[in-house]
Amino acid sequence: MAPARRTGEAPSGPQGPAPTPRTKQRPPPPPFYLPLNIALYLCIITNVISALYAPIQDCDEVFNFWEPTHYLNHGYGLQTWEYSPVYSIRSWLYVSTHALVGKIGSFALSSKSAEFYAIRCFLALVCAACETRLYSAICRTLSPRIGLLFLMVVAFTPGMFHASTAFLPSSFTMYMSMLGLTAFLDWRDGQKTAQGIMWFGLGAIVGWPFAGALMLPLLLEEVVIGLLSSNMRGMFLSVLDGAMRCFVILALEIAVDYAFLRKLVIVPWNIVAYNVFGGEGRGPDIFGVEPWTFYIRNLLLNFNIWFAFAMAAAPLLALQALFRPKATSVQTLLRTVTLITPFYMWFAIFTAQPHKEERFMFPAYPFLALNASIAFHMILSFVGSSNPNVAAGSMLPKIKLAVVMSIILMALNSGLLRIVGIMSAYNAPLKVFEPLAQPGVAQPGDTVCFGKEWYRFPSSFFLPSDLRAKFVRSEFRGLLPGEFPEAADFSALFEGTSRIPTGMNDRNEEDLGKYTDLSQCSFLVDSEFPSRKATELEPDYIHEDTQWEQLACHSFLDASQTGLLGRLIWTPDLPITPEPLRRKWGEYCLLRRRSDVTISPPVTLVRKVDARLQKRSHAEANARMSLAGGVVALPDWGKISSGDKRLLAGVHSRIALTLLAIHPAPFFIVVMFPDSLHFGQSPIYDIALISAVTSISVWLITRAFHWWTTTSKPDVPRSSTPDLEKKSVAVTRKPGEWIPSDFKRPPASPYPDWDVHTTKPIPYRPFRYGPKYFVTMGLRSMKWDEWIELDNHYLKYHADKARRIAERGDKCCKTAPEAWDAAIELLEELTSYLPERYPSMFQRTPTGLTNLITHETFNITQRPLPEDPMTIAARLIQDDLAIMIERPDGEYYLLAGAILLAGFWRLSDKYGMRLSEIHTSGSVPQYTEKLEKGMMNFFRRLKPEDPVLRNNYFIQVDDSLPWSHSIGSEDAEEVSWSTAQKNKAIENHWFRSERQSLRRLPKSGGVVFTIRTYFEPITRIVEEEYVPGRLASAVRSWGDDVAVYKGRERYGDVLLEFLDGKHREQLDRGLRVELEDEVRKYPL
């Protein structure tokens, strides 16, 4: 049984009739379609290109690995909280091995940046060796064709391009996974179970502990084989041997970490403990969460059609086993199941995690490539069959070849175009620091500051030895790295790594001590994108010419303005390129403070030339300097000094200048060609790439990616790794169509110490100081625990609702047939949520729930229901409820509601109306001009997992919560503020505030409004500090249209006089208005 496991082919289709016997035996087929040495060279070339040109995509790579490595080799660097001895969730063994490589390379290299690339090239060689080893094992034990397909995937996909040379534990784990899989595959010299365990264990201990899960299916297969072959003793000894090797590796890591931290720590356990058992406010989720579709989109981007094949491996295998059982043996079937399971398992585990990052998939990339290769091999075996009884057997061979080659060429070309697109779009941070290496530019003690571009800093390896990186405050509010204590020798290094730094925490809480004042910055790195607006903390430094001068500027893709295809792949910047396909650019610049340093002539000229280039459009200059050399017009050659002419002729070792005199024009053309070419920077590469894509028509590529034009992008707060290509969310479904989502609301935590008699209402005060009143939707994210708010006004609200249900019936509560499913789903959601959040009041029953306070029991499973489902829902909570349903015309209609305490509007007036009509019929100010388009887009894109909140407020001049009688009778045909008595006594003024939640129901797709009204007399809320002054300022800030809508003319004089008086009283008591932000936050 065991030998058969290792020598059989992977699943394939029938090969047609048996060939006629030959008298002369055929030679055995070669084990490799591509010789091993060629395969190794191919992997080295692709990986070295990655090492030299790939941008750093993950800021964790810089701050958690490049910076500690720089500290070990140069005595200073930035430090993250993970390296604090208090937390110690990063191992110094992993970093120190790379630092050793860099140190050895530094003896032959002249710059720190060269040391950086030396380490990257080392990673490229290691990855190439691992890829070649696994290629060899696949070819020998599975099939040469599977091996060749595997090689194509790992060599020409963007995913492997980035992972191959990333200085990340997940990349190291990927290397070890390849070696471990090789050991489990290759039985040429006997079983290598212990070796396989050792390689996977090395990746898990030194790299990422979770990666050990990839080994489980392979190890289980070994156990099964041991049972079937009655060799469990040998199997046990092999596992024990592998475990002992892993313990030796762990002991070495503990020893190394003890030397650096001066304490015994087990880093793999610390990583697991923090990520799995971190507790409230800790763990990976505090760095951002992504929807479950994140890895699907990410892997499609990074592996294109190969990911589809990888996911199809199991279904294809099942279909083959079901309908073509003779195509493969049982042993081969079981072996294939074992080989394809690790990727599915890894994909499922990490898809289920809320926090997702691209690098988490790196360990599974070899398994993805293997799955895709096996799946495509099965398809090729079926298509290549010559059996006339098989459908594919009757196809012409040329047609088969054309189809297969089209798929392969499309996959290869789309992968290469994306690689080139990423390199040319985002590599500015690796180039912008080059002027600092020039003599006289940087002085000892200078600092390079980073604000909003902190996460793109490529590491201190790109700064001269006398420069230090600092941070200035930006809109980012997480924890930035600190600094290791500077060390002059090895003893000081170990002292620095063992010292507990200040200002560190494991909650991603901002530490103001990490910032440097802008006045202390000698240099500044900043970016400018036409689509991004400057803020107070993130001004447009690039154009502050009086303060800063540009030393170097490079183009950086403006993803928000670039079309889908331009963001996905490289597109040529040619005049014939259609505008929607052209890439749009921003600037990524290194700035120098004008008052600090006298500009040296070489830098001045380069900056001027570069600036002139940047001011020209692509059409005027034909190509930007950062895209394809450079063409620029300079003043008359005679007006340039002889010294500057020499500088232009040899200003930088990487630039050659060709000077062409065009007379009688009063300027000269300077053509700049970099002698060290980069992708996307030279016409040579442009021409080569255009030639490469001729194998596929533009139409085919466009159609292949067309569906991405409307693929949703996660509208979730950014994680620790910035997303370089995030853009507006688009929706693919047809209007009125909803595909049920598998999203489930997280369980609600019990409200702490909640009591129906003592828990007070939350004092929402959603008004802001003038002088301007902004008409906006005012949305903010909602925590699921806060969906429904109940307090000690519950019994009053419950009684009011019950009375109005009895009196007004379907005038207040109604559900249209097409909204019935949504109303039932809402009722089910409330039945689930309320016992979780308020267990002292609600108790779940097999058929619904019981209100323990009012002693009502609700059966939501019986049919027909005793009442309209919206009526039942309204009896449970203090909120009014409304459900909007999207119809095929793309409009949202109010088709279900329980509007019992609205005060100013009636369900009977709005029922059945479109969303826009609801607002325009109510004369909502500036709705058409400022709100309609954004609101429609918001409703269309709202996802079940992204609930939101908003607040508003009104002034009411009577004390009726359900209906404000001052604007007319509730049964009157028309109501308005014109009927209200003017300037009533202040005791008749009430403050009415609404807290609205909006969420989409996952099954039905209905959008639910909950409208909780808070109702208090003005005379009570003005006793709160700051409230009278702020409310008076807000009321005065209303424009004429808002003032009419809110009825200010009927109460403004009395109200404002009263508020002003109360405000003066607070000021007289010593209230300091400037301190309000320290004690109150909107909307409170």
From TrEMBL:
<dbReference type="InterPro" id="IPR005599">
    <property type="entry name" value="GPI_mannosylTrfase"/>
</dbReference>
<comment type="similarity">
    <text>Belongs to the glycosyltransferase 22 family.</text>
</comment>
<comment type="pathway">
    <text>Protein modification; protein glycosylation.</text>
</comment>
<feature type="transmembrane region" description="Helical">
    <location>
        <begin position="32"/>
        <end position="56"/>
    </location>
</feature>
<dbReference type="GO" id="GO:0000026">
    <property type="term" value="F:alpha-1,2-mannosyltransferase activity"/>
</dbReference>
<feature type="region of interest" description="Disordered">
    <location>
        <begin position="1"/>
        <end position="28"/>
    </location>
</feature>
<keyword id="KW-0328">Glycosyltransferase</keyword>
<feature type="transmembrane region" description="Helical">
    <location>
        <begin position="167"/>
        <end position="185"/>
    </location>
</feature>
<dbReference type="GO" id="GO:0005789">
    <property type="term" value="C:endoplasmic reticulum membrane"/>
</dbReference>
<feature type="transmembrane region" description="Helical">
    <location>
        <begin position="242"/>
        <end position="261"/>
    </location>
</feature>
<feature type="transmembrane region" description="Helical">
    <location>
        <begin position="142"/>
        <end position="161"/>
    </location>
</feature>
<feature type="transmembrane region" description="Helical">
    <location>
        <begin position="117"/>
        <end position="135"/>
    </location>
</feature>
<feature type="transmembrane region" description="Helical">
    <location>
        <begin position="655"/>
        <end position="673"/>
    </location>
</feature>
<dbReference type="InterPro" id="IPR021848">
    <property type="entry name" value="HODM_asu-like"/>
</dbReference>
<keyword id="KW-0256">Endoplasmic reticulum</keyword>
<dbReference type="Pfam" id="PF03901">
    <property type="entry name" value="Glyco_transf_22"/>
</dbReference>
<keyword id="KW-1133">Transmembrane helix</keyword>
<keyword id="KW-0808">Transferase</keyword>
<feature type="compositionally biased region" description="Pro residues">
    <location>
        <begin position="14"/>
        <end position="28"/>
    </location>
</feature>
<feature type="transmembrane region" description="Helical">
    <location>
        <begin position="403"/>
        <end position="426"/>
    </location>
</feature>
<protein>
    <recommendedName>
        <fullName>Mannosyltransferase</fullName>
        <ecNumber>2.4.1.-</ecNumber>
    </recommendedName>
</protein>
<feature type="transmembrane region" description="Helical">
    <location>
        <begin position="299"/>
        <end position="321"/>
    </location>
</feature>
<dbReference type="GO" id="GO:0006487">
    <property type="term" value="P:protein N-linked glycosylation"/>
</dbReference>
<keyword id="KW-0812">Transmembrane</keyword>
<feature type="transmembrane region" description="Helical">
    <location>
        <begin position="685"/>
        <end position="705"/>
    </location>
</feature>
<feature type="transmembrane region" description="Helical">
    <location>
        <begin position="364"/>
        <end position="383"/>
    </location>
</feature>
<feature type="transmembrane region" description="Helical">
    <location>
        <begin position="333"/>
        <end position="352"/>
    </location>
</feature>
<feature type="transmembrane region" description="Helical">
    <location>
        <begin position="197"/>
        <end position="220"/>
    </location>
</feature>
<dbReference type="Pfam" id="PF11927">
    <property type="entry name" value="HODM_asu-like"/>
</dbReference>
<keyword id="KW-0472">Membrane</keyword>
